[in-house]
């Protein structure tokens, strides 16, 4: 999942050939790496690919800060 | 896709139309000219139940459950039957950017305190997000909330806030941790009269003049902990939860106005005669009417699709952006066509045709500008 999420974020959301490697603990929204639209696209990707529904109340830093926290969140919802 | 509506949903729309025709038969020429907000009209709508459309029944809400399609149809009905476009705009703003976030994120105490009063029209709610240096780039906001014993001290300046000068309860967004960027935004319920909180005067504007807009100032404004909405850092999530709903229903009022505008224009060009025939017989005139009809029908399809998707709990980023962009721009175009087809009476204020054009222009700016919607669409296409 980590690899799949990282690839989607790097290739589809950041979409910058000059961007290096995404660290799995890198803050996606707080650092400005992704904007609100990017985060919502990521949520859509997670819902479609991992068969879970992300309620609005779960869109917190604890759950969605980085690839690592997202993986933990998704696994906890399965 | 099935955009068919239930009998109950359609019946409620008809009920709203009948209510608005009876409650608001007056001209809005003077109210528009003098930028007058009518608390009486607000109360009439609350008594009917419109302010309760985003609230569960146990907190004073209107229906058995919150139904976005019913809300859209209700706003469409209000826009169709009431000539004050500001009224539907203002109700919608309170429904989805103040009440709904409290429904989603509020504590039991907050729901009991705020929701019944807003449903009843007793309290008016505002959503305070924009700042002088944080418009489309809203998470660069400067308003801070510093933790102190028992609560927070708010400092900052919010501007262009719908109902800012008259609001009783304000949903304010402030940063509790600037180092966390968007994750550091927290929401607070600020109440009229709190020490350190000042509401500015109404700022005159081009359209939607019956809705007061203004600035809000916070100077060491103490907000108790129990007035924080959701946990620290939930501000980003709260704004996201409300904006798609807001964009959808805020345009429903316009859809009703566009329907009325078309009917009124058709009636005028059938009646008005030049060179011995109704001006509607001239193709230059009828072509504009055809274009108005096309914009109306496409707007309907886009709006109903988004409402249908949101009601099913689906995300609708692309559809919402297409809707917001197309419908707000269409309302301007159709308002211009209505003016052209009316000739001089379309241009003169007393006939109340030109006001729609002024009201329409705000639509390409508020709740995400047309430029921002185009950015969203192109990004979603992978650009």
UniProtKB/TrEMBL annotation, chain A:
Question: Signal peptide span per the entry?
Answer: none
Output this protein's name: Carrier domain-containing protein
| Record domain Carrier: where | 1-78
Automatic annotation (TrEMBL), chain B:
Domain named Acyl-CoA dehydrogenase/oxidase C-terminal: residues: 233-379
Pfam families cross-referenced by the UniProt entry: Acyl-CoA_dh_1 (PF00441), Acyl-CoA_dh_M (PF02770), Acyl-CoA_dh_N (PF02771)
The residues covered by the Acyl-CoA oxidase/dehydrogenase middle domain are 126-221
Which cofactors, by name?
FAD
GO MF terms, alphabetically ordered: acyl-CoA dehydrogenase activity; flavin adenine dinucleotide binding
The UniProt keywords, alphabetically, are: FAD, Flavoprotein, Oxidoreductase
Q: Where is the Acyl-CoA dehydrogenase/oxidase N-terminal domain?
A: 6-122
Q: Which domain of life is it from?
A: Bacteria
To which protein family does this belong? Answer: Belongs to the acyl-CoA dehydrogenase family.
Q: What is this protein called?
A: Acyl-CoA dehydrogenase
Organism for this UniProt entry: Aureicoccus marinus
């Amino acid at each position: 999942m980590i690899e799949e999420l990282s690839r989607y974020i790097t290739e589809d959301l950041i979409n910058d050939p000059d961007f290096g490697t995404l660290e799995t603990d890198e803050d996606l929204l707080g650092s400005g790496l992704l904007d609100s639209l990017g985060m919502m696209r990521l949520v859509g990707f997670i819902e479609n690919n991992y068969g879970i529904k992300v309620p609005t109340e779960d869109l917190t830093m604890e759950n969605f800060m980085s690839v690592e926290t997202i993986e933990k969140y998704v696994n906890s919802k399965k | 896709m099935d955009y068919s509506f239930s009998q109950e949903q359609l019946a409620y729309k008809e009920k709203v139309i009948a209510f608005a025709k009876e409650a608001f038969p007056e001209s809005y020429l003077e109210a528009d000219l003098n930028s007058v907000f009518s608390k009486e009209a607000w109360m009439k709508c609350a008594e009917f139940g419109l302010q309760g459309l985003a609230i569960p029944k146990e907190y004073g809400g209107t229906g058995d459950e919150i139904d976005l399609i019913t809300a859209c149809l209700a706003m469409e009905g209000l826009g169709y039957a009431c000539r004050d476009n500001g009224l539907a705009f203002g109700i919608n703003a309170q429904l989805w950017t103040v009440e709904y976030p409290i429904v989603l994120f509020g504590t039991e105490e907050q729901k009991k305190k705020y929701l019944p009063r807003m449903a009843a029209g007793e309290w008016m709610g505002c959503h305070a997000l924009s700042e002088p240096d944080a418009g489309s780039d809203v998470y660069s906001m400067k308003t801070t909330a510093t933790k102190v014993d028992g609560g927070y001290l708010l400092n900052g300046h919010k501007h262009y806030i719908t109902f800012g000068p008259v609001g009783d309860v304000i949903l304010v967004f402030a940063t509790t941790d600037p180092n966390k960027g968007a994750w550091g935004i927290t929401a607070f319920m600020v109440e009229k009269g709190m020490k350190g909180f000042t509401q500015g005067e109404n700022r005159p504007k081009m359209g939607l003049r019956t809705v007061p807009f203004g600035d809000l100032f916070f100077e060491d404004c103490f907000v108790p902990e129990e007035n924080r909405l959701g946990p620290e850092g939930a501000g980003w999530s709260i704004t996201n939860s409300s904006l798609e709903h807001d964009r959808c229903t805020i345009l429903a009022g316009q859809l009703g106005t566009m329907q009325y505008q078309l009917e009124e224009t058709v009636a005028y060009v059938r009646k008005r005669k030049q060179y011995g025939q109704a001006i509607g017989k001239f193709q230059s005139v009828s072509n504009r009417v055809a274009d108005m009809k096309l914009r109306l029908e496409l707007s309907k399809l886009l709006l109903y699709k988004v409402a249908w998707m949101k009601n099913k709990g689906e995300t609708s980023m692309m559809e919402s952006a297409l809707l917001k962009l197309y419908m707000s721009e269409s309302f301007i175009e159709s308002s211009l066509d209505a003016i052209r087809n009316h000739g001089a009476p379309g241009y003169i204020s007393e006939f109340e045709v030109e006001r729609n054009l002024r009201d329409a222009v705000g639509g390409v700016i508020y709740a995400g500008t047309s430029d921002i919607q185009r950015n969203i669409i192109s990004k979603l296409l992978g650009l």
